[in-house]
Amino acid sequence: MTIIKNISQLVTHSTDNLNPQPTIYNNLSLQIHEGKILKLSPNSKLGRYKKEKIIDVKGKAVIPGLIECHTHAIFGGNRIDDFEKRSNGISYLEILKAGGGINYTVKCTRSTKESELLKTGLKRVKKFISNGITTLEIKSGYGLSFEDELKLLRIINTIKKKSDIEIIPTFLGAHTFPEEYRNEKGKYIDIIIKKMLPVIKRRKLSQFCDVFTEKGAFNLNQTKQIFNAAKRLGFKLKIHADQLTNSGAALLAAKYKCISAEHLEKSDEKSILALKKAGVTAVLLPYATIFTGHNEFAKARMMIDNGLRVAISTDFNPGSSYTFNLLFCAMLGITQMRMTINEALMAITINAAYALGLQERKGTIEVGKDADLLVLNTNDYREIFYNPDPSLIKLVISKGKIIFENS
Ligand code: NIG
Ligand code: FE
After folding, report:
1. Same domain for 101 and 172?
2. Which domain holds residue 54?
3. Contact 11, 63 (CB under 8 A)
4. 140 lines ligand 1 (CB under 6 A)
5. Best mutation site among 74, 210, 212 for ligand 1, i.e. most ligand atoms within 8 A of its Cβ?
6. Backbone dihedral region of 318: left (phi > 0), alpha (psi from -120 to 50 degrees) or beta?
7. Torsional class of 99: left (φ above 0), alpha (ψ -120 to 50), beta (otherwise)
């Protein structure tokens, strides 16, 4: 058993409650057994323990470990050239349509050795951990051929085995059309449907199938074909929807009851209401909005006011969002999308758990759940949103074990 004592402030939402007001306990101790939360008790009621491992946090605040539910963390090369092009006024969409962007990273990724991709992948996971992440989703999507997509999913699954935190692999073979199928799009869709999806299912490499539905990537009809096949095989569906244009992708997400619809910068009220009705979790990526030079954020206020579950994520990737700092993204949620501090906390903990189907095990500090926790370098949890500096994270605890300590 491990005991965490002298917590000045323990802040947690609860699994089934959409109320953004968290429970705040003061002067609390936590008992952890076999990686799970066993008991919460007042410091004053804590008995005498001798053999147990005691972590005395000396009056600091504790919150749930952060959940990063949307990243593209396995890729070769970088996109500094695109970044500079945008600074010269060429847009993300123009670069994508001209065959640059994602396809440039595909070239770099294909020519990078598997061992090298694994090594940088593991380094990036470490960076996420130092940013307070205890659950991390990673998408494929820079392979775009049968062999290369499988290679990426293999790497992500190796990272899953080697990591101290929970890693969730997502298949994103439908990220864009690869160069060689530019003029034969149907053929590439056939490869996804007939080759990739069945093998990924059989080898249990991912339980999620994601599609980038956008001009220059997959249109609504193409998305439907992939969703139909993925659904038949038992995949849970995710979608990059309405990022650059309002294409009806969020409405499609509602129709297919996707577990999550992500981006949604351009989604209108009708789409938002449809997502709510279908029980889809919205994943908002405000750093991608600013990194690509846009200033129209997703309508988080309208979503929350209409009862939609809203998560926030970094979208870490080389082209549209180069950051590991989920707290900074939450701060953008507060300052740019009119979310409250408590809604932002919820967005990077329990709501992000919902986006991955992990809400029964992750995202809150409740008895029976995994002991994934952050001990902060402050006694006021609001400070990490006010000053989203990872150095305010003192300890990262995953399944009851300290996996990172800030010196
Ligand atoms: O979520 N929108 C599509 N995919 C990524 C960007 C990938 C890239 O530019 O390499 C995103 O923003
Ligand atoms: Fe993305």
Report:
1. yes
2. 2-65+365-405
3. yes
4. no
5. 212
6. alpha
7. left
- Count the domains in the chain: 2
Specify the residue with its C-alpha closest to ligand 1, atom 12: 320
Q: Return d(Cα 246, Cα 274) in angstroms, integer.
A: 14
> pLDDT band at 273, cuts 50/70/90?
very high
**Cα(64) to centroid(ligand 1), Å:** 28
C-alpha 171 to ligand 1 mean position (Å): 14
Same domain, 75 and 58: no
Enter the tokens of residue 160: 């899953």
How many CB atoms within 10 Å of residue 277? Answer: 12
Instruction: Check if 240 has its Cβ closer than 6 Å to any atom of ligand 1.
Output: yes
Residue 137 and residue 311: Cα distance in Å, rounded? 13
Distance 80 CA to ligand 1 centre (A): 15
Which two structure tokens, joined as six digits, stand for 256? 């297919």
Same domain for 202 and 138? yes
Rounded Cα gap, residues 310 and 307, in angstroms: 9
CATH of residue 9:
2.30.40.10
Q: Which amino acid is at 128?
A: F
Mean pLDDT of the 344-365 span: 98
Please say if the pLDDT value at position 246 is more than 90: yes
The reported pTM is 0.97
d(CA 203, CA 387): 43
Residues in Cβ contact with 319 at an 8 Å cutoff, skipping those fewer than 6 apart: 79, 82, 92, 101, 102, 105
Q: Whole-angstrom Cα distance, residue 254 to residue 238? A: 11
Which ligand 1 atom sits closest to the C-alpha of 262?
A: 1
User: Do residues 331 and 382 both lie within one domain?
Assistant: no
Is 402 a residue whose pLDDT tops 80? Answer: yes
The CB density around residue 239, as the number of other CB atoms within 10 Å, is: 29
Residue 385 CB less than 6 A away from ligand 1: no
Contact 289, 295 (CB under 8 A): yes
How far, in Å, from the CA of 318 to the mean position of ligand 1? 8
Dist CA 139 CA 23 (whole Å): 33
Domain co-membership, 344 together with 213? yes
Cβ(317) – ligand 1 distance below 6 Å? yes
